[in-house]
Amino acid sequence: MKKVLLSAACLGTTTVFAQVKDSLLTKNVDEVVMTASRKKENIKEVPGSVTVVGEKQIQSQLTVNSDITSILQYTVPSLGTNSGQTSNTGQTLRGRQVLVLIDGIPQSTPLRNGARDLRTIDPSAIERIEVIKGASSVYGNGADGGIINYITKRSKTDKKISGISQVGFTGQPYGGTLGVRTSQLLSGKINKFDYTLSLAYERTGYTKDGDGVLISPTYSIAKMDNYNGLLKIGYDINENQRIEASYIGYSSRSDLNVGLKTGKYGIKPTIGEGIGKGLETTPQGTPKNHNIRVSYDNKNLFAGTSLNINLYYQDFKTVYGYSDTFFNGGQSNVISKKAGARFNFDTQLWNSANSQGEIIYGADILNDETVQKLEDGRFWTPNMNMTNIAPFVLAKIDLFKKFTIKGGLRYENIKVNVDDFNTLSTLKSDGTFTKSIPVAGGKLTYNALVGNIGIRYNIEPYINLFGSFSQAYSINELGRILRTSTSETIKNLETKPIIVNNYELGATGQLSSWLNYELTSYVSTSKLGASFVQSPDRALMIQRSPEIVYGVEGFLHFTPVKWIQFGGSYSWMEGITSVKDDGDYSTKINNSRISAPKVLAYVQARPIPALSVGLDMLHSFKQNRFEPNAKTGLYAYGEGYVPEYTVFNFKSSYEVNNNWRVSLGIENLFNKLYQPAISWWTARDSDFTNALGLRGTFMVEYRF
C-alpha cells in the first residue's frame, strides 16, 4: 500500500505550551523543549500545542499522589481522567491512543495495547514531561493522539557529589492503609564525567473509598511493591562531542489477596471482601521494564552540521489477574522487546540577521517483537515481529525572529511477520466457549510517504498565532484483531493501518506581566479508525470505520503578585464515526475514547518565603451521549452515562533551612465518595467501583 500524505506529525511541527504552575509564568517564555522536533528549541518556534510539566510541578504533585497517571490527569488538558488502577484504559489524549516514551525510548505496545504504558517509571526519576498533543509520527508507531515523553533527570552540578534524599508515608483514616516510599538521587561531575543515580521504592497499603470500604482488587494498586532505578553516565569528549549511556529499570508487583464481591452497575459498587481464591500464579503488575540507551552527540560534524545518534533496547512484561473467561482459566501477560536506532543530522543552511534556515534529516530503525500469552504458555495472540525503517527530512525557516515555517517528509517502511497460532477458547455470553481455530500466519507490509507543514507567527507578546497539519501512521491493536480471528489465514483479516490527519489552530500570549493564556482548536480524521465496541454476545471487538474527532482546549494563568498565582484549563471534545462508511456520521465514538469535558484549576501561594501552600481542583462534567438498550435497559460497553464529579487536593511544603524540607499533601481533601469515569462508561457490574477516599502523604526531604 502506497500513499502520499502531508503530515505535520512527521517531525514535530506541533506546538509547545508550558504549563508551569509552580514557577512564575513570566519567566518561562524562553523554555526549551526537545520532543516536538527531536532537537532543543525555544517554545516560541514550535507551531502547535504542547504541555510541559516541569520538575517543580512533578515534585508538588508527588506530595499528593506518586501515581504518574494521577499526576498527568491534573496537569494535561485533553488527557482523560485516570482509572485509579494499574491500567490506564480510557486515559486517551484528544480521543486517541498516545505513544509513551522515556528519553525517546518507546514504552507503548501498539501491536497489542495492554494499557500499562503510562505507569512504567517512578516520577522521582523524571525531570520534566513533554506532551505533544495531536497526531504525530515523529517517533514512529502508535501516536494517534500524541506523545508523552518522560525526560529523566540529569546532572546539573559541578560538585563531585550532590543529592536529594526523601522519605514519605501515606495513609488513610482507616486501618491497614499505611504505605511508605523512599527515594535517593545522587549526581555529580568528575573532570569530564558526569553521573546521575536515582533509586526509589514504594510499598502501598490497602486502598479504601470514602466510607472506609476496600476498593475492588481488580487491577488494584494496593499492597504493591514498586521499584525504580536510573543510572546515567555522560562523558564530554571535547566541547563539541559527548557520549552518554543510561539504564532505567522499573518493577511493580502486588501481593494483594482480597476477594471480589461484585456489585450492581449504577447502584452498588464492586468491592474487596474476604480472601482471594489464590488462583494467581504470578503477582499482578509490571514485573519488568528495562530500558538501555546509548547516545552520541557531535555539535560540529562538518560544515555547520551536527549529529545525534541514539541506540536503545527495551524489555517489557506486564501481568494481569486471574480470569475464568479462558478455557481452564489463566492469567494473561503482554511481553514486548524493542531495539532501535535513531540517526539525526542537523545542517544550518544560512544564518543572517533577519532569517535562518536549517534542515534536519536522518533515519529511524525499530524492531518491535510483541506477544500476549497466558502464564501457562498458551498463546492468546501470535508472536508479532515488526521492523520499521523510516528515513526523514525536515526544513525549518525563521524570518525576522517572528515567523517560523516547518515542513518535512518521512517514508514509513513497515514489515510485520506473524507466526502461525491457534486462537484461545474464550467464554461467550451463553456460558459456552468458542472453538479454537488454527490460523496461518504470514507477512504484512505497509508503506507510506508522509509529510508535515506548520506555521507560527509571533506578532506581539500578547498574541502569537500557530497552525499545523499533522499525521500519525500506526499499526494499532493488530494482536487483538488476530486473537479474535474467525478465519484460518491472516490474509482475510482487516489489518490496515490507522492514518490520522490532525488540523490545529491556536493563539497564545502574555497579556500583561502577570497573565498568560492559550486557546487551541483541533480536528482529527481517519479513514479507518479503531474503537472497542460490544458485539451481540457482549464480547468486545474492534470496529474499523471512518472517524472524526474535534475539540477545543485553553488555559489562563495569573500571577498578580510574586507570592500567589492561580489559573486553570478547560478541555472539550467530540467524536463521530461512519459505521457503514457511507458518509453518515450520526454515530458517536464511545466514551472509552471520548472523555467528558474537564476543568483543572489551582491556586498556589507563598505567604512567607519558607512556606508554600496550594489547592488543586479537577472537575469532570457529566457525559450523557448514549441511550440504553430499549429491551434490556442496559448500556453497551463504553456508552454508560457518566455523572459529574469534583475533587480537591491540598499540597504544602515548608523549607526548614537550606537542606531540609517537609511537605504534606492530602488527596481527595473532602473525602468525597464517588466513582471514576471508567466505572460508569464501561457499564459493567464488575467495573463499577468507588474511587480512593481521603489519603494523606507526609514527606521529609534532605538536600546536599
Automatic annotation (TrEMBL):
Residues 1-18 form the signal peptide. Pfam families: Plug (PF07715), TonB_dep_Rec_b-barrel (PF00593). PROSITE patterns: TONB_DEPENDENT_REC_3 (PS52016). One of its GO terms (biological process) is siderophore transmembrane transport. It is a multi-pass membrane protein. Residues 43-147 form the TonB-dependent receptor plug domain. Gene3D superfamilies: TonB-dependent receptor, beta-barrel domain, TonB-dependent receptor, plug domain. It comes from the Bacteria. Residues 237-669 form the TonB-dependent receptor-like beta-barrel domain. InterPro entries: Beta-barrel_TonB, Beta-barrel_TonB_sf, Plug_dom, Plug_dom_sf, TonB-dep_rcpt-like. Coiled coil: none annotated. This is TonB-dependent receptor. It comes from Chryseobacterium flavum.
